[in-house]
Design goal:
Belongs to the NAPRTase family. Keywords: Ligase, Magnesium, Manganese, Metal-binding, Phosphoprotein, Pyridine nucleotide biosynthesis, Transferase. It is an enzyme of class 6 (ligase). The protein folds into two domains: 155 residues, Aldolase class I (TIM Barrel, Alpha-Beta Barrel), CATH 3.20.20.70; 112 residues, Alpha-Beta Barrel (nicotinate phosphoribosyltransferase), CATH 3.20.140.10. Helix content is 32%, strand content 16%. It has ten helices and 18 strands.
Length: 370
């Protein structure tokens, strides 16, 4: 029937989860085969699948109260709460999808301390939200507390406000104080622009799931980066091409970050390794890449050397920073950037420059090759 199973049912408390429902053969999602898959995957021992409903008969609909006592029919309790929730908001209970309610009940019975509902499988307002509230209130009656909801489509900021209002109304009407503070999580191709919109519009969002735009770079899907020689046997060299952007900058170099009086970095400066390091308060003559034909004079308030050697001759020569240290360094560096460089809309380009001495070497090697 298309069930996927690795052959191990009892592994000392470890649960097998059948995650093949969405990958099954066939184009129709409501053709009945989805439940067949759930049945087949449940038979050899899986406890749940991607839909949160691995067994069509919901064997976990009974739940023990957290304080102890006899098992309670969670499904029946949720149905009674659904009536009360719909009466409160004057919505027809028949609009709430029963399959979604059954999935919520199954998930809550299996994970009563970690129940989080995905609200947009059907209609958020008419189905997902009342079904979640019903199951969460049923859990509360048995001593458990739902941990949140997630939205994955539509106007996330506006929906979060509407859902928060419903939670607060339920909490006040049914005298459940924590209900108004149930965390609201959102996902669905969240980008920097999405975050800016949330901030500008205001929202009741507590958690944001960022996936595609965190691990990929839509603006530059591939990294056009190639290693080029800058020195051979102690002699500086460069690559010559008609495309100036592809010309390399010769020689072994040191890199410095220059800061203004406000503490913001305003330029990174490349110098030859043997050059004296620039000093704070010292006026420098530099050439900005892309504007090499003219000299610019700058006076940094602070100078930070950026280049550190961690590998030499194939060996680690300095302890590598830990992941928390890398993360802290990145966060601090970003926080120091000027708002003009950090803004999303039309940010000011951050300049990189070379010293006059490095620029002269570049010109000499280019002229000598002609």
């Amino acid at each position: 029937m298309g069930a996927k199973w690795d052959g191990n049912v009892d592994r000392g408390g470890e649960w097998d989860l059948g995650w093949g429902w969405e990958r099954r053969q066939g184009l129709e999602w409501d053709d009945g085969w989805g439940m067949e898959h759930s049945t087949c995957s449940h038979t050899p021992g899986t406890l749940a699948n991607a839909t949160g409903c691995a067994n069509p008969t919901f064997p976990w609909q009974e739940l023990l109260p957290r304080a102890g006592g006899d098992p309670v029919d969670l499904a029946g309790l949720a149905v009674s709460w659904l009536q009360r929730v719909c009466e409160l908001f004057q919505t027809p209970p028949g609009k709430a999808n029963q399959g979604e309610l059954a999935a919520f009940v199954s998930y809550a019975a299996t994970f009563p301390c970690d129940f989080q509902g995905l609200l947009d499988t059907y209609c958020v307002r008419r189905s997902g939200l009342p079904n979640f509230c019903a199951v969460a209130l049923a859990l509360h009656q048995l001593g458990y507390q739902a941990i949140g909801v997630r939205l994955d489509s539509g106007d996330l900021a506006q929906q979060s406000k509407e859902i928060r209002a419903v939670f607060r109304a339920c909490g006040a009407h049914f005298q459940v104080p924590w209900f108004g503070t149930i965390p609201i999580a959102v996902s669905n191709d969240i980008s920097e622009q999405s975050l800016e919109e949330f901030r500008r519009e205001g929202s009741e969002i507590d958690m944001i799931g960022i996936g595609t735009n965190l691990v990929t770079c839509p603006l530059q899907p591939s990294l056009g980066c190639v290693y080029k020689l800058v020195e051979v046997n102690g002699s500086p060299c460069l690559k010559l091409t008609e495309d100036e952007e592809k010309m390399t900058i010769p020689g072994l170099k040191a890199i410095y970050r220059l800061y203004d009086t406000a503490g913001h970095p305003f330029m990174d400066l490349m110098a030859l390794e043997e050059e004296p390091s620039p000093s704070a308060g010292q006026e420098l003559g530099i050439r900005v890449l892309g504007q090499l034909e003219e000299t610019t004079r700058v006076t940094p308030s602070t100078v930070e050397p950026l280049h550190r050697t961690y590998f030499r001759d194939g060996q680690v020569c300095e302890p590598l920073p830990s992941l928390p240290e890398v993360r802290t360094h990145a966060q601090v560096s970003l926080s120091l950037l000027s708002p003009a460089h950090r803004r999303l809309q039309e940010p000011q380009p951050y300049p990189v420059a070379v010293t006059e001495r490095l620029h002269r070497l570049f010109l000499e090697l280019r002229q000598g090759s002609r």
